[in-house]
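It is worth pausing here to work through a concrete case rather than discussing structure prediction in the abstract. The textbook approach is simple: state the sequence, then state the predicted structure, then interpret. We follow exactly that order.
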Amino acid sequence: MAQTLAGAVHSELVIRKSRFVGCVQPVADRAAALAVVEGLRQAHPGAAHVCWALMAGGRSAANDDGEPGGTAGRPMLEVLRHQDLEGVLATVVRYFGGVKLGAGGLVRAYTDAVAQALLGADKRPLRRLRTLDCAVPYALEGALRRRARAAARLRARRA
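Step two, the predicted structure:
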């Protein structure tokens, strides 16, 4: 069963003088995720890279932001997939420390930054909700509302 996160969780790693600041957080869709990424770029102007991975709406996306292809976004995305997460954005901000890590080192660093953040995350089962509009005579409105509440999976509201 797919899960999502209750809130944002951060992590920080220092590997051979490079600093990796990871964050996993719930997001509604790709537009919200891109807004978060843009906010990180503005909040961390000295960062060398802001890489991200997204699982939302049954779709996935990842971005290496200038790192060698397949060394950042895709490994982060695999961590999200492995934990069966949905509606989650993983970001890692990298401050370059002057020492090249190589492709394998980058994959491990980005994977570890996301995995470490997820260790402290409060995961919750994902509940799919749908809106059902119905029109009933006023005399039946109270009965419908009571049945909706009794089902405990429905929320009734007046139009």
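Step three, interpretation. Residues 51 and 65 are 5 Å apart (CA to CA). The chain has four helices and seven strands.
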